[in-house]
C-alpha cells in the first residue's frame, strides 16, 4: 500500500513537473530571440595614419593586440585570406578577410569559427580603419554580431549583454595597446 | 472566411488587370488590387478614400536597435515621423490599401499593426516565438507571418486581426512573398535551404523547392512567375520558376546577400558583408554592376514605378536611394539606429 502510494506520489510529482515544464515552455514565448548588436570603439593616436596602418593594417599580424599570442594564416591580405588567432588565455579564433583596402586604410573580416566559451558571439564581422586627423590619427574598430546563443532564452553568459561586454573588451584593450605601442615607441 | 474573401476580390483584379503588372516586388505586390478590400479593412484609417491604391511615397523602416519605426518621405528623402515600437522590430509589410503597416517584433513575438496617416499602433498580435518575415496577400489583404523558431507560417485575418491559421513550413522561415493573383504564398526556409509553396485557399504546402544555401530574403516578380531568394551562406541569388518548381539559375553576388528587389529588368541584391548592391541583368542572369552602399545593406525594395531602389543600411543607419537609370546612389537619409526593413517597406 505504501509502495503504491509512493508510486502515485511520484506520478503526481511527475505530472506537476510536466505541467511546470509546460508553463516554462509557454513562458519562453515571452522571452526574446537574438538581435544583432553593434559595438564601435575609437582611439586617437598621436602618430600619422600611415604609421598606424603599418602596425595594424596587416591581416596576418595581430601581435599589437595584448590578448593575442600568435597569428597564423594564409592568403596574405587578399580577399578570403584566413588567419588563426591563438589567445594568450587559451582558445583560438578562426577568421577570414572580407575586404582589404590599403588606400582607404581599412580592412573587414569575419569570424568563421570560435567556441562561445572563448568569445560568446555568433555571426561576428568587424572592420578596423584609420584616418588621419592633422598630425594625429583616429582608429575606428566596429563589430557586428549576435549573442552566443541563437535559440530563445539564452543563459546569462550567452546573452546580448555578455556578448557586448566581451566584444567591447576585445576592441578597447586592442586600441589602447595600439596607442601605447605607437606613442610609446616615438 | 478567407475563401470568401479571395472569391469576392478576384473580379476586381480582372477589372484592373494592369495593377498586378505594376508590382515590381513584394512592395508593389502589396499594393496591387488593393482597392478590392477597402470595404473590408482599414475603416479606421480612411482606407476607402480612393478607388485605386495610391502610392503614398513613404518608407516604413524598422530600426531594430532603436526600437523604432522611422517614416521617410521618399520625395524629400527626409524622416517625417518616428513611432516607438518595442520588441526589436524587424519585418515589415503594408496593407493593399496602404493604410496599415504590419511590423514583426521578434523579441516580443508579436505582429504590430500601425495605422496611417495617424501613425498610431492599432494592435499588437501575439504570433509565436520568433516572427521575422511578413507578407500581405495583395488580393485578400490576409497577413502571413513567418516564425523562425516555430517553423510555421501564421495566417492573420485583416478584418478581425486574429490568427486564423497555421501552416507548417521548412526550418526557420524568413522571407515571405505572395503572388500578384493572391493564390500562392512563398516562404524562404533558411535552414532547409528551400522555398515552401503554399496554396492560400487550402493553406496546404503544395511544394518545396531547393535553392541556395540559407535563403533569407524572397521576392516574386510582377507576373508572379519567378521567385528570387538571397542566399546568405552561398553568396548567390536563386531564380526559381514558381509553377514548375524548377531552379532556373543561380547567380553569384556579393558576400552575405540579404534581400532582392526587382526593377528595370534587373534584380538588386543587398550584400551585407560586401557593403554593396549587386545588379543582376535578368536577361543574361549575370551581375553587370556592383554599387557601393553603406555598411550592412539589408532591406531592399523598388518603387512601384521601378525608377528607384531603396536599401536600408543597418550599420550606418541610413536609407539609400539607387536611381535605376544610371544604377547609382543619388540620395540618402539618416534613420534611427539599426534599420533592417526586412520586407516590402514602402507604402
Description:
The complex is a heterodimer of chains A (186) and B (347). Helix content of chain A is 32%, strand content 35%. By secondary structure, chain A is of the alpha+beta class. Chain A folds into 2 domains: 1-30; 34-184, START domain (Alpha-D-Glucose-1,6-Bisphosphate, Chain A, domain 4, 2-Layer Sandwich). A 7-stranded antiparallel beta sheet of chain A has the order 1-7-6-5-4-3-2. Chain B is mainly beta. Chain B has a single domain, classed as 7 Propeller (Methylamine Dehydrogenase, Chain H). Chain B has helices spanning 2-15, 18-21, 26-31; strands at 58-63, 68-73, 78-84, 91-94, 100-105, 110-115, 120-126, 131-136, 143-147, 152-156, 163-168, 173-178, 184-189, 194-199, 204-210, 215-220, 226-231, 236-241, 246-252, 257-263, 266-271, 276-281, 286-292, 297-302, 308-313, 318-323, 328-334, 342-343. The longest helix of chain B is centred in the N-terminal third of the chain and has 14 residues, at 2-15. At the A-B interface, loops of A face loops of B.
How do the helices and strands line up, and which of them pair or pack?
The complex is a heterodimer of chains A (186) and B (347).
Chain A (H helix, E strand, L loop, with lengths): L1 H26 L9 E9 L3 H8 L11 E7 L7 E6 L4 E10 L4 E9 L6 E13 L2 E12 L12 H25 L2
Chain B lengths: L1 H14 L2 H4 L4 H6 L26 E6 L4 E6 L4 E7 L6 E4 L5 E6 L4 E6 L4 E7 L4 E6 L6 E5 L4 E5 L6 E6 L4 E6 L5 E6 L4 E6 L4 E7 L4 E6 L5 E6 L4 E6 L4 E7 L4 E7 L2 E6 L4 E6 L4 E7 L4 E6 L5 E6 L4 E6 L4 E7 L7 E2 L4
Parallel strand pairs in B: 4-28
Antiparallel strand pairs in B: 1-2, 2-3, 4-5, 5-6, 6-7, 8-9, 9-10, 10-11, 12-13, 13-14, 14-15, 16-17, 17-18, 18-19, 20-21, 21-22, 22-23, 24-25, 25-26, 26-27
Question: Keywords, please?
Answer:
heterodimer, A: 186 residues, alpha+beta, Alpha-D-Glucose-1,6-Bisphosphate, Chain A, domain 4, 2 domains, seven-stranded antiparallel β-sheet, 3 helices, 7 strands, globular, disordered N terminus, B: 347 residues, mainly beta, Methylamine Dehydrogenase, Chain H, five-stranded mixed β-sheet, four-stranded antiparallel β-sheet
Amino acid at each position: 500500500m505504501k509502495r503504491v502510494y509512493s508510486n502515485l506520489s511520484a506520478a503526481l510529482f511527475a505530472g506537476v513537473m510536466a505541467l511546470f515544464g509546460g508553463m516554462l515552455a509557454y513562458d519562453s514565448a515571452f522571452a526574446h530571440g537574438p538581435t544583432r548588436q553593434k559595438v564601435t570603439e575609437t582611439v586617437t593616436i598621436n602618430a600619422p595614419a600611415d604609421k598606424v596602418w603599418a602596425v595594424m593594417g596587416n591581416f596576418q599580424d595581430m601581435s599589437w593586440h595584448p590578448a593575442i599570442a600568435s597569428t597564423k594564416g594564409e592568403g596574405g591580405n587578399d580577399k578570403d585570406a584566413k588567419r588563426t588567432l591563438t589567445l594568450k588565455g587559451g582558445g583560438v579564433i578562426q577568421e577570414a578577410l572580407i575586404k582589404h583596402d590599403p588606400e582607404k586604410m581599412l580592412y573587414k573580416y569575419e569570424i568563421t569559427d570560435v567556441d562561445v566559451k572563448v568569445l560568446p558571439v555568433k555571426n561576428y564581422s568587424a572592420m578596423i580603419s584609420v584616418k588621419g586627423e592633422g598630425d594625429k590619427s583616429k582608429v575606428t574598430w566596429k563589430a557586428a554580431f549576435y549573442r552566443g546563443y541563437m535559440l530563445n532564452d539564452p543563459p546569462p553568459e550567452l546573452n546580448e549583454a555578455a556578448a557586448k561586454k566581451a566584444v567591447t573588451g576585445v576592441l578597447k584593450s586592442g586600441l589602447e595597446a595600439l596607442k601605447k605601442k605607437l606613442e610609446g615607441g616615438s | 472566411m478567407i475563401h470568401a474573401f479571395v472569391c469576392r476580390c478576384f473580379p476586381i483584379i480582372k477589372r484592373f488587370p494592369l495593377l498586378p503588372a505594376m508590382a515590381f516586388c513584394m512592395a508593389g505586390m502589396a499594393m496591387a488590387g488593393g482597392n478590392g478590400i477597402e470595404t473590408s479593412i482599414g475603416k479606421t484609417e480612411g482606407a476607402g478614400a480612393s478607388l485605386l491604391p495610391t502610392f503614398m511615397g513613404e518608407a516604413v523602416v524598422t530600426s531594430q536597435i532603436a526600437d523604432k519605426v522611422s517614416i521617410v518621405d521618399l520625395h524629400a528623402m527626409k524622416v517625417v515621423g518616428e513611432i516607438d515600437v518595442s520588441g526589436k522590430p524587424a519585418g515589415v509589410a503594408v496593407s493593399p490599401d496602404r493604410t496599415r503597416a504590419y511590423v514583426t517584433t521578434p523579441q516580443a513575438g508579436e505582429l504590430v499593426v500601425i495605422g496611417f496617416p495617424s501613425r498610431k499602433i492599432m494592435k499588437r498580435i501575439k504570433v509565436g516565438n520568433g516572427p521575422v518575415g511578413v507578407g500581405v496577400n495583395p488580393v485578400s489583404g490576409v497577413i502571413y507571418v513567418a516564425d523562425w523558431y516555430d517553423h510555421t507560417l501564421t495566417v492573420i485575418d485583416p478584418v478581425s486581426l486574429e490568427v486564423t491559421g497555421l501552416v507548417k513550413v521548412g526550418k526557420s522561415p524568413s522571407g515571405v512573398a505572395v503572388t500578384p493573383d493572391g493564390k500562392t504564398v512563398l516562404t524562404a526556409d533558411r535552414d532547409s535551404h528551400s522555398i515552401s509553396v503554399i496554396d492560400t485557399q487550402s493553406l496546404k504546402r503544395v511544394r518545396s523547392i531547393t535553392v541556395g544555401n540559407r535563403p533569407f530574403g524572397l521576392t516574386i516578380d510582377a507576373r508572379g512567375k519567378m521567385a528570387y531568394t538571397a542566399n546568405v551562406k552561398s553568396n548567390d541569388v536563386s531564380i526559381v520558376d514558381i509553377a514548375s518548381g524548377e531552379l532556373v539559375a543561380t547567380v553569384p553576388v556579393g558576400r552575405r546577400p540579404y534581400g532582392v528587389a526587382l526593377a528595370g529588368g534587373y534584380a538588386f541584391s543587398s550584400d551585407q558583408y560586401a557593403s554593396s548592391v549587386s545588379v543582376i541583368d535578368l536577361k543574361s542572369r549575370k551581375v553587370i554592376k556592383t554599387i557601393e552602399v553603406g555598411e550592412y545593406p539589408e532591406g531592399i525594395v523598388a518603387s512601384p514605378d521601378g525608377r528607384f531602389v531603396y536599401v536600408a543600411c543597418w550599420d550606418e543607419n541610413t536609407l539609400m536611394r539607387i536611381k535605376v537609370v544610371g544604377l547609382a546612389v543619388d540620395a540618402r537619409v539618416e534613420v534611427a539606429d539599426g534599420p533592417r526593413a526586412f520586407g516590402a517597406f514602402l507604402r
